[in-house]
């Protein structure tokens, strides 16, 4: 299938073609695709915790569903990243991955049990696994002037713009049709299908030299600092469970179900506003510093989530959570891309994503178990502690790197 799609791809674009709105063509259209798909996904994701509990799921089941889906499908991210590096193509993987998600999303309307949600969630995340590392490899290969932070910042901003549109649409539909989750699920596939056409007609392959294509995977082909960085991210992610628990906590703190999508909206508005400036800033002062700041913000947010606070304070915490997201997500990917050579960016990003997804399984199970069996504060305090440890290690990473550069 991949081979037949490759033959239909347009020729390479000239890297000197003019930018559109200050961004390279591929950066712009990849961002638009992400916006459309995330609109669809977040329409569903913003109401999924409440829907799951309405059909009998526990909070432990909620964490398990997210963890299994993300962790299992995350292995595909490493494989697709390596395969895209091996054949020197990214667009076919994007097309297949986004198409699979677009087909699966409306099927949630026919769900009657948590187990069915797990199956569909896995299939949708499987599609994300196919497309994500090749997409980010395409972004890294398309940026100019070493502006990877800006490029990934734009990608993050577009992701979260979709995450704004999706909950807004979900909120409007729930207001018109209280408790009717199925109409949200049915309509969710429309933007994702539009994203497929953006890929076909807007994105151009960035071809790589055949001589530079990798033939096999070897650990020593990646710098030691890359593996050190992944170890830090692993520790942080152990305390970074599914965001669904944040939404459940908000609901239990007095925020009505119909307004839960708007709470999630605050996080994404802040992330959209801050993502591109944060990415550009990281290009100037160093990505390590922004990641350290993001980890510190996360620790503070989770510390206060573990306390008994009112609805007004929760809105502030969700805003800070958006600031953490802007300072870490896109910048971490840009940092991984910067640390590896062009022939191995897809593989490096795929391993990074796989590690995140695999770690999310124990993280979500631990958080869900602590929430159900201990109390609602402990999982958030655990997350704050893991973030504090990761912050200290990231400071060490930054200081040792500065020492190497001076020498």
Query: What's the overall average pLDDT, rounded?
Result: 83
Structural class: mainly alpha
Q: How many H/I helices?
A: 16
Radius of gyration: 20 Å
User: How would a textbook summarize the main sheet?
Assistant: none
Taken as a percent bin, the fraction of beta residues is: under 5%
Shape: globular
CATH homology group: MFS general substrate transporter like domains
Q: Would you give the CATH topology?
A: Growth Hormone, Chain: A
Cα end-to-end separation: 50 Å
CATH-level-2 architecture: Up-down Bundle
* Low-confidence regions: 1-15
In which range does the helix fraction lie?
over 70%
- The string of secondary-structure elements, in order, is HHHHHHHHHHHHHHHH
The total beta strand count reads 0
| CATH class group | Mainly Alpha
Tally of distinct domains: 1
């Amino acid at each position: 299938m991949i081979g037949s799609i490759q033959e239909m791809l347009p020729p390479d674009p000239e890297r000197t073609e003019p930018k559109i709105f200050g961004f390279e063509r591929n950066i712009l259209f990849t961002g638009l695709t992400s916006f459309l798909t995330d609109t669809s996904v977040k329409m569903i994701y913003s109401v999924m915790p409440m829907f799951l509990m309405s059909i009998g799921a526990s909070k432990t089941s909620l964490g398990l569903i997210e963890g299994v889906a993300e962790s299992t499908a995350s292995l595909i991210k490493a494989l697709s990243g390596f395969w895209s590096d091996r054949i020197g193509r990214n667009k076919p993987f994007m097309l297949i991955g986004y198409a699979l998600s677009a087909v699966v999303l409306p099927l949630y309307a026919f769900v009657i049990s948590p187990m069915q949600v797990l199956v569909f969630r896995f299939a949708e995340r499987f599609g994300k696994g196919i497309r994500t590392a090749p997409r980010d490899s395409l972004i890294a290969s398309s940026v100019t002037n070493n502006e990877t932070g800006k490029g990934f910042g734009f990608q993050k901003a577009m992701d979260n713009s979709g995450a704004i549109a999706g909950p807004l649409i979900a909120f409007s539909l729930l207001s018109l049709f209280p408790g009717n989750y199925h109409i949200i699920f049915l309509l969710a596939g429309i933007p994702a299908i539009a994203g497929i056409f953006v890929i076909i007609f807007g994105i151009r392959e960035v071809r790589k030299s055949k001589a530079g294509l990798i033939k096999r995977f070897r650990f020593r082909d990646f710098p030691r600092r890359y593996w050190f960085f992944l170890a830090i991210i692993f520790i942080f992610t152990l305390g970074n469970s599914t965001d669904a628990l944040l939404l459940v906590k908000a609901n239990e703190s007095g925020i009505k179900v119909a307004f839960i999508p708007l709470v999630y909206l605050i996080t994404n508005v802040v992330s959209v506003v801050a993502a591109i400036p944060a990415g550009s800033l990281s290009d100037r002062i160093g990505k390590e510093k922004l990641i350290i700041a993001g980890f510190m913000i996360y620790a503070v947010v989770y510390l206060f989530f573990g306390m008994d606070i009112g609805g007004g304070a929760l809105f502030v915490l969700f805003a800070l959570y958006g600031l953490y997201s802007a300072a870490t997500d896109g910048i971490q990917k840009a940092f991984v891309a910067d640390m590896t050579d062009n022939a191995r960016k897809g593989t490096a990003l795929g391993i990074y994503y796989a590690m995140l997804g695999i770690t999310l399984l124990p993280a979500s199970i631990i958080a869900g178990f602590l929430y159900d069996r201990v109390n609602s504060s402990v999982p958030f305090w655990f997350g704050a502690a893991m973030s504090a440890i990761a912050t200290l290690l990231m400071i060490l990473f930054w200081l040792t790197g500065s020492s190497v550069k001076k020498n």
